[in-house]
Design goal:
Number of domains: 1
Order of helices and strands: HHHHH
Family: Belongs to the TRAP transporter small permease family.
Distance between the termini: 13 Å
Number of strands: 0
InterPro entries: DctQ, TRAP_DctQ
Shape: elongated
Keywords: Cell inner membrane, Cell membrane, Membrane, Transmembrane, Transmembrane helix, Transport
Structural class: mainly alpha
Function: Part of the tripartite ATP-independent periplasmic (TRAP) transport system.
Radius of gyration: 19 Å
Subunit structure: The complex comprises the extracytoplasmic solute receptor protein and the two transmembrane proteins.
Strand content: under 5%
Number of helices: 5
Length: about 170
């Protein structure tokens, strides 16, 4: 589990860095083409919207993995360590169920539907299903990271940044 989580983290980080660089380049090109050249590019808005969706979804998976997502621990911080671990286990299990049911299940159904309907993006001319694929992919990553966390919590540990249990 350690090597897989660490490898997946590295791939996800590098992919997000590349996507961020791409969106900066696309938005800069839009500004240059609109205000300097006087002829705005027709594809940059759709490209930046697609990149933003992928960055948001994959970034949410990485934020969940590293514990950087929004969390309120006002109530749970008053519990004993044993109860904190139990609550963490329950909440992590709920996150895994949500990711599998809504993101993988519902997002997968959306991708399948847009493939069947052969929906194409207006400016790019690619299938919309490829754009929506970010939803079930991020759901799978969140579920995987959640399952790794559940294994560590079951053992009485927490998941470390290196991918192993404490």
């Amino acid at each position: 589990m350690n090597k897989t989580v660490f490898w997946l983290d590295e791939v996800l980080k590098r992919l997000l860095i590349g996507l961020m660089a791409a969106i900066v380049g696309v938005v800069c090109w839009q500004v240059v083409s609109r205000f300097i050249l006087g002829e705005p590019s027709s594809m940059t808005e759709e490209i930046s919207r697609t990149l933003l969706l992928w960055i948001g979804m994959l970034g949410a998976a990485l934020a969940y993995r590293t514990g950087q997502h929004l969390g309120l621990d006002i109530v749970t911080s008053k519990f004993s360590p044993q109860w904190q671990r139990r609550v963490a286990f329950l909440l992590t299990a709920l996150v895994v169920l949500f990711a599998l049911a809504v993101m993988v299940g519902g997002g997968g159904a959306l991708v399948q539907l847009t493939f069947e309907l052969n929906q194409m993006s207006a400016a790019l001319g690619i299938r919309v299903a490829w754009i929506y694929l970010a939803i079930p992919l991020a759901g799978f990553l969140i579920a995987f990271y959640g399952l790794c966390q559940l294994i560590c919590l079951w053992r009485g540990d927490t998941l470390l940044p290196t991918g192993g249990c404490e």
